[in-house]
Amino acid sequence: MRVLVTGVAGFIGYFVARRLLDAGHQVAGIDNLSPYYDPQLKRDRLARLAAYDEFSFERVDLGDAHATADCFAANDFNRVVHLAAQAGVAYSLENPMAYVDSNLVGFAHLLEGCRRTGIEHLVYASTSSVYGANARLPFSTGDSTDHPLSLYAATKKANEAMAHAYAHLHGVPATGLRFFTVYGPWGRPDMATFLFTRQILAGEPIKLFNHGNHWRDWTYVEDTAEGVVRALMKPPQGDESWSGEEPNPAASRAPYRVYNIGAGRPVHLLELVGILEELLGRKAERLLLPRRPMDVRETCADVEELRRDVGYEPSTPVREGLARFVEWYRDYYRV
User: Fold this and answer.
1) pTM
2) Per-residue DSSP letter, 103
């Protein structure tokens, strides 16, 4: 297949593209190389993908309607993995319009490209953050997502609604994947494992909000990429048993599906810090701070539906995944 991967220079995009290429597919990657974090890290990911003969790259900003339309018109894509987005929960307080431009306007342009060219299947990134104030664990795709705690989460909830509209009106098969705290080598510098590692090695204090009393469903990036590719290979079918009287929010009569993609094994934040301290051979100076209004206290994914439908099976323990991350970090930054 010829697969378009948006956000291909990003963390998850890089691993998904590599997984597809290793499986023998053609990958056309696009990215705007946003300076949200060091673009050199993005260029270095792209350089590794460039070693594949079946990989091509074009710098495209999905916020540009004409550039997006031209990209779809000039290529014969079979399927699309949409990972481009303005990421980060905290940054949405500082620069909310970046999330509107990328996550709403850009996603609308992408949906139009899929509609016009008859894409066989669109898989797009959602987030566990959509569960917001919901406190029932583990998070199930049947749970309410009506109370997001950040604009970032609200834009991702909107993406799910927009994808359903296009599935219903235009028959665009769409699968949303709610990612749960992805970590691993080549990660983003604003992510907790990356920040903690840099700060511990530099002798700087690490900030632990809610006094460190958070649980997160840490999911290793290669397990995540495997799940994304497995989902891509199975376009959703309309569920004829779906009822508007008792609506399942994760399915539809239209070709639409939403899944959780996590490890299903939450780890306490202080335990994660302790593992990093062991791996780095240094103790962290801990700065305990109050909980922030956009922080969810605990996340845990119910992944049974994804396991049942596509054979998703996350297998990397947190200690092993963190060891791989630390090894990469020390090598990449030579520390």
Assistant:
1) 0.97
2) I
